[in-house]
Amino acid sequence: MRRKKTPRWLQAARVRGGPVEEAGRADWLARALGRSGIMPQQAAEQAIREGRVKVEGRLEREPFAPVRLGATVFVDGWAYRLEAPLHVLMFHKPEGVIVAGTDPEGQGTVFERLRAVLPPDMRNFEWYAVGRLDRDTTGLLLFTNDERVFQHGTSPEKHLPKRYVAQVAGNLSEETLARLREGMVLEDGPTRPAGARLLAPECVELVLTEGRHHQVKRMLAAVGHPVLALHRQAVGSVALDVPVGDWRSLSPGEVTAGLGFQAS
Ligand code: URA
Question: Does 202 reside within a domain?
Fold first, then answer.
């Protein structure tokens, strides 16, 4: 059996014997800078390696150096405190952009679009997209600076409902809707029962409690109705209510009651 590789941050923590847990969460310098909104993680790694970051007055050149929340850091001589505010944002994804770090086709990424509309004090967080939408899918995409929210939102065990509206080719019948509701077998296994409601002869609302790759398109193709356009309206009970390309912060109540996330 292959042994699991020790992560870099843990190696660095062991070498130093420093604190690695803060309220049950391991943290290292580059990630802590991203989580605190001081600078995104990749930029932070570069700044640390270039010798531009001090922690509690000491120059630190190791991005994986363990740090504690509350520590004072200096970046290019400016003082900051390492904090862990929890942010979850809704973003209305436009068509054409991808959920990835870079776009080989040059149409742009959701991260670029989001940063372009965020105010300066929100731009320097490390933002994680909570799940994926295809390039041609529009609608609700959540972002967070907290990996626990990311894990909660993408975990296959949580069964967080996601509501989609699909425009399809051909008129959908009641029998087809019943097949979608009951669950069907796709090449990667059976689907869970889903909500399916006809909105117009060629338009269906689907509520899925799993997030498999291209799942909506594959389910509708399997029943003979290829998807022509797909839009995500809601995740949990959080419904999209901002215009295309725009964003807003979720309230703490939306994060807990709407997404079912409990910070431990
Ligand atoms: N299902 C799909 O097929 N595509 C998406 O973008 C989201 C869900």
Answer: yes
